[in-house]
Amino acid sequence: MDDFPAGPASPGPRRPPLSVVIPVHNGGRDFGRCLRGLRDSTRSDYELVVVDDGSTDGSADLAGATGARVIRVPTRLGPAAARNAGALAASAPLIFFLDADVAVHPDTLDRAMARFDADPGLAGLFGSYDDSPAAPGLVSRFRNLLHHHVHQSGTFEDDARPARTFWTGCGLIRRDVFLEAGGFDPKLYRRPAIEDIELGYRVTRAGHRILLARDVQATHLKRWTLAEMIRTDVYCRGVPWLLLMKRSGVVETDLNVSRSQRACVAATALGLLGAAASPWSPSLLALLPASVAAIVALNRDFYRFLARRRGPLFAVASTPMHLVYYGCCGASVVIALALWHFKSGRVEGEPAPAPDGRRVDPAGAVASPNPHPSTRRPRSKAR
Questions:
Q1: pLDDT of 35 strictly over 60
Q2: 341 or 27: which leads in pLDDT
Q3: What mean pLDDT do residues 207-211 have?
Q4: Residue 194 in contact with residue 244, Cβ under 8 Å?
Q5: Which residues are bridge partners to 213 per DSSP?
Q6: CA distance 140 to 316
Q7: Which structural domain range is residue 284 located in?
Q8: Cα 148 to chain centroid, rounded
Q9: Percent of the chain at pLDDT exceeding 90
């Protein structure tokens, strides 16, 4: 029988049912907390595969000390390529993708695996951040609580609902489905972006099912700054996602791009235009408070949630953050449509996606269809 690296708390080398894959680049203290969360998990029969994406802070050594199998990448390739490398190295039939700044709850892996045990036809699922973000500060708490609320909203049956996207912050997928779909596309997404959303579109377009499970949660450890929030919402998510929808012909109405959220973007744009034009027509300044009132009304459930979780003052203080968020969404639309029309649907320097049947490998090259490397692994001491 082949020997396989066991999970950090597993009693001995054996073929695990689950591989946890974490890409990391200078993970620091957050990565340490991520690894401790896995150590404290109620499930121990997993292997841990950490892809060190050119770290210089000792992240690889930290992962190795916990019993993880560490794949070192000499130069930074980006999260899409790093996750591909981890998936290829994984020996289990199920892959749990986890970000290096996310700490699972003790029951997160068990809850995710239970859904696959109960539903053999399920291809993938993802969860959400919990409502207890670790980082202090208004921006960090607002940003993480917004993510939690969006992923917890909608019509759920048995705490789950169908999804067309995927999420690698805390998501589980069948390895064979992942490889057949082509993995993540590191040519299209060299930097952190929406490579997981694009994968979800391909997986569901092929007829597979993905669920959003609201009982699968983890704690986000990242500390956000306002500048980082704006950069992420515009250049890492908003613009790439709209370009993806234009390329794929998908009219997305879920999560951050629901109809009510689009109405909020329009209200924000109207309020900002009114404020900008007020020097010439002072009466137009009234559009700004009107737009704020409309946004609060359309998001009343969110503001009630913020008030329950952090208090009424926090909910009120979050309103400017919400306006910034919707302003980023509006800017993303303008930038993406300009790129689409003036670049004929392609961003300069952005290669076309690989045709069906070809897989983009971790280094960004296109490999032959359906490669399947040997899953033999050297003996690894369990920790």
A1: yes
A2: 27
A3: 97
A4: yes
A5: 160
A6: 15
A7: 255-342
A8: 12
A9: 68
- Over its C-alpha atoms, the chain yields an Rg (Å, rounded) of 21
Question: Residue 383: its pLDDT value, please?
Answer: 36
Check: CB of residue 213 under 8 Å from CB of residue 170.
no
Residue 214 has pLDDT above 50, yes or no: yes
DSSP state of 127: E
Average pLDDT over residues 47-67: 94
- Asked if 41 and 13 count as a contact pair (C-beta separation under 8 A), the reply is no
Q: Which of 23, 214, 206 is nearest to 123 (CA)?
A: 206
Domain boundary among 310, 327, 342: 342
Residue with tokens 């897989």: 359
Task: Identify the residue whose tokens are 């959400």.
Answer: 128
Cα–Cα distances (Å) from 156 to 7, 46, 150, 162, 163, in that order, read 32, 29, 13, 9, 11
* Long-range Cβ contact pairs of 110-113 (< 8 A, separation 24 or more): 110/41, 110/42, 110/43, 111/213, 111/215, 111/216, 112/172, 112/213, 112/216, 113/17, 113/18, 113/43, 113/172
Burial of 296 (0-12, 13-18, 19+ CB in 10 A): middle
Q: Is the same domain home to 26 and 156?
A: yes
- Quick: pLDDT tens for 348-374: 334 444 434 334 454 443 333 333 333
Q: Which residue has the tokens 């090259």?
A: 365
Q: How many domains does the chain have?
A: 2
- pLDDT-based confidence at 118, cuts 50/70/90? very high
